[in-house]
C-alpha cells in the first residue's frame, strides 16, 4: 500500500474555502488515492508552531488570509514571483523537510485571462497583495499600462512591483475607475469595496471584460452592474481553479485535471 500523502489549506476564516473540493476532485480524477486534503483554521501568529511538527507525509500547504505574509517566516526558499508580490499562497515540501514558497495566484490570473484581448492597458481595482499578483499577471500577458483604482493612497510595495514588472501605473480614486477605458478590468476588492466600485459603473454602455476575484455569492453587485453595462463578466472561480491546479502540480508532480476541478467547483457553488 502506498504511503499516505497529506496537504491542506490554512487560514482564518477557512471554512468557506473551495480548495478541499478542488484538490479532492483532482485526486479522484488522477487516481491518487493515497492523497488527502483538509482545511485547518490557523492564524498568522500560529503558523510557525502549526507547521513545525508536521512529518514527511505532509507534501503541501495552501495559504489564504491572513497567512500570505507570515509564511515568509517559515519558508526555506522563496520564488521570485512570491518575493516581488510580497505574498505566499503555497508551501511545497522539500526533501530536507523544509518548505519552498510560491505564489500561484499570478499563474491563476494569467490563465484566467489568457484568451482576453486588450490594447496594452487594463484597470485593477484594489491595491493589496492580490492586486500585485494581478499586475504581474497582466504584465505577463503584454499589458503595459494599468489604472490602479484604490480607496486611499496606493501602497508603496504595489507601486514598486509595477516598476519591477515594467508597467506604467496611474492611480485614481476607486469611485472614478470608470472614467478610464476599461477593456480589461480585474477587481481584487472584498465585497464591501465592490459595492463602491459597482456604484461607479452607472448606465453608460461599456465594452471589455471584468474578472471579479470573488467567487462566492455570485454574482456580486459589481459583476451585476458591469454585466448590465455591457461588460463580459468572469467570476473568481476561473482564477481559483487555475491557481489550485498549479498547486496540485507542485504538490504531486502530476499534470492537473483542470476540467475535473472546474466541474467540482461549479457543482459546489451551485449547492
Low-confidence stretches: none
Measured as a percent range, the helix fraction is: 25-40%
Total strands: 12
**What is the overall shape?**
globular
Mean pLDDT: 94
How much of the polypeptide forms β-strand, as a percent range?
15-25%
**How many domain regions?**
2
- Structural class of the helices, strands and pairings? alpha/beta
Looking at this structure, what is the CATH superfamily of the largest domain?
A: NAD(P)-binding Rossmann-like Domain
The radius of gyration over CA amounts to: 19 Å
Total of DSSP H or I helical runs spanning 4+ residues: 10
At the fold tier of CATH, the topology name of the largest domain is Rossmann fold
Query: In whole angstroms, how far apart are the ends?
Result: 35 Å
Indicate the CATH class of the largest domain. Alpha Beta
Strand order of the largest sheet: 2-1-3-5-6-4
**Largest sheet at a glance?**
6 strands, mixed
The helix-strand sequence is EHEHEEHEEHEHEHEEHEHEHH
Please state the second-level CATH architecture of the largest domain.
3-Layer(aba) Sandwich
Amino acid at each position: 500500500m502506498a504511503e499516505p500523502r497529506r496537504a491542506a489549506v490554512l487560514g482564518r476564516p477557512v471554512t468557506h474555502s473551495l480548495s478541499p473540493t478542488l484538490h479532492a476532485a483532482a485526486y479522484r480524477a488522477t487516481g491518487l488515492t493515497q492523497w488527502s486534503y483538509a482545511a485547518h483554521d490557523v492564524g498568522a501568529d500560529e503558523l510557525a508552531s502549526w507547521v513545525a511538527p508536521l512529518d514527511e507525509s505532509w507534501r503541501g500547504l495552501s495559504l489564504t488570509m491572513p497567512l500570505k505574509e507570515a509564511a515568509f517566516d517559515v519558508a526555506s526558499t522563496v520564488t521570485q514571483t512570491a518575493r516581488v508580490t510580497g505574498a505566499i499562497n503555497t508551501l511545497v515540501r522539500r526533501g530536507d523537510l523544509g518548505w519552498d514558497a510560491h505564489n500561484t495566484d499570478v499563474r491563476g490570473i494569467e490563465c484566467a485571462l489568457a484568451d482576453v484581448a486588450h490594447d496594452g492597458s487594463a484597470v485593477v481595482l484594489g491595491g493589496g497583495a492580490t492586486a500585485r499578483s494581478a499586475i504581474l499577471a497582466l504584465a505577463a500577458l503584454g499589458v503595459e499600462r494599468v489604472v490602479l483604482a484604490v480607496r486611499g493612497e496606493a501602497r508603496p510595495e504595489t507601486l514598486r512591483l509595477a516598476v519591477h514588472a515594467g508597467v506604467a501605473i496611474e492611480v485614481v480614486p476607486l469611485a472614478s475607475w470608470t472614467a478610464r477605458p476599461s477593456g480589461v478590468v480585474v477587481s481584487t476588492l472584498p465585497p464591501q469595496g465592490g459595492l463602491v466600485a459597482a456604484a461607479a459603473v452607472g448606465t453608460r454602455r461599456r465594452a471589455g471584460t471584468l474578472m471579479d476575484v470573488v467567487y462566492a455569492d455570485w454574482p456580486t453587485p459589481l459583476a451585476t452592474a458591469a454585466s448590465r453595462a455591457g461588460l463580459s463578466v468572469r467570476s473568481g472561480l476561473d482564477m481559483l481553479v487555475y491557481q489550485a491546479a498549479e498547486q496540485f502540480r507542485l504538490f504531486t508532480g502530476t499534470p492537473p485535471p483542470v476540467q475535473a476541478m472546474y466541474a467540482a467547483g461549479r457543482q459546489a457553488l451551485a449547492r
